[in-house]
Amino acid sequence: VHLRLALLGCGNVGRAFVALAAEKEGELRDHYGLTLGFTGGLTRSAGGWLASTSITAGELAASGWPVARQAVPAVDCRAAELFEGEAVAFATACPADVLLELTSLEPLSGEPATSHVRTALAAGRHVVTANKGPIAHAYRELRALADRRGVALRFESTVMDGAPIFNLAEFSLPATRVVGFRGVLNSTSNYVLAAMATGQSLEAAVAGAQALGIAEANPAYDLEGWDAAVKATVLANVLMDADLRPADVSRTNLGADAMRAAQASLHTGRALKQVVEARRSPEGTVEAAVRLQTLPAADRLAQLAGMETALTLHTDTMGDLTLVEGEGGPGQTAFGLLADTVSIVRQLTAGGPFGER
Ligand SMILES: NC(=O)c1ccc[n+]([C@@H]2O[C@H](COP(=O)([O-])OP(=O)(O)OC[C@H]3O[C@@H](n4cnc5c(N)ncnc54)[C@H](OP(=O)(O)O)[C@@H]3O)[C@@H](O)[C@H]2O)c1
Fold it and tell me: What is the pTM of this model?
């Protein structure tokens, strides 16, 4: 199978994906009969390009696009043309089988990424995204659209980078109900709380997280639980068939002042964590919450160090299943995109259908 890919957004994650696709070219060909080629790309500042013949990952990586800010990748052997429209028009026009939606997250509205995804699905393209916004704000609508169009909508990288949460649930937990979950999903708050436990000030710990490139430009987004609330929404909507929005997730005892106060009164042997929890109420609705919690040392979440994150799924077949991710980042996020791309090929070669769980 040859899949033509288009990159809508190509920052840290997009560049890591191109590098990984180049590195894994041999394995993909030999084990899955899969070759990948790029037929379009667009970023806000570098502009867009389209190519009628695929450019390989190695060629694209070597071209310098989009870092060099040239509008079209400088690939000698293929004609890539300038695309002058904006992102929604690109999602329609790109001559690709799969749109990789890798633009920045807008947590409160999910736009414009939701429009990009909707447009690509409506045009009959598979979509793979690392952007939580569309899945948190419009999962039911987008899933129904993908099913109607007979195309895939995959988003493994939206929670815990490429750790296999959604692929695990879809492919390895047949006939299983996820009845709840509990985890630490924001690596910045975990890093900051771990550093504060060693005596660092909150300001120094936040500066450390920013120097490592893991914190948002506005760290309040991490510390006040919005990142975790968006992830909880994605998990609840996909795994528990909920219809939440990030604002429906209760956020209590969060933020800089609460963290300082909780740290000051913490007893030896206990750990502070920003914990995400969801469960189905007796009435059948799904309730999700993010809060700062003081945990006993024996709690698995209390043992997470530095940037580690973890998620426990409460299931009716396997009891509790826990995934722990070490240090994540663009490389692991790129792996999730690759895993989703391989899942599309597996479904294509098995004759579909797409989108059924
Ligand atoms: N970094 C991670 O480890 C990680 C992990 C999990 C999920 N994610 C998610 O993955 C996505 C990409 O993350 P990233 O770290 O690669 O972000 P990034 O480095 O900021 O890159 C974002 C890219 O999107 C482009 N872009 C933004 N808005 C656009 C628009 N309206 N139209 C066209 N292009 C647009 C940017 O273009 P310009 O640079 O030209 O402005 C840039 O190429 C985000 O949604 C993020 O939440 C990231």
Answer: 0.95
Residue 94: CB partners within 8 Å, gap ≥ 6? 6, 8, 39, 40, 50, 83, 125
182 CB neighbour count, 10 Å cutoff? 19
Q: Which among 13, 20, 116 is the best mutation to test ligand 1's pocket, defined by most ligand atoms within 8 Å of the CB?
A: 13
Q: Are the CB atoms for 196 and 202 separated by under 8 Å?
A: yes
CA of 10 relative to ligand 1 center, distance in Å: 6
CA 227 to centroid of ligand 1, rounded, Å: 15
Which of the listed residues 102, 109, 161, 337 should we mutate to test ligand 1's pocket, taking the one with most ligand atoms within 8 A of CB?
A: 102
pLDDT digits (tens, 9 = 90+) for 162-204: 999 999 999 999 999 999 999 999 999 999 999 999 999 999 9
Distance CA 348, CA 33 (A): 12
Q: What confidence category does residue 356 fall into, taking pLDDT thresholds of 50, 70 and 90?
A: very low
Instruction: Give the model confidence (pLDDT) of 31-60 as tens digits.
Output: 999 999 999 999 999 999 999 999 999 999
> What is the Rg, in whole angstroms, of the alpha carbon atoms belonging to the chain?
21
Burial of 281: CB neighbours in 10 Å, binned 0-12, 13-18, 19+: exposed
CA distance 44 to 7: 12
Beta-sheet pairing, 35-43 with 2-8: parallel
For ligand 1, mutation pick of 8, 44, 117, 158 (most atoms within 8 Å of CB): 44
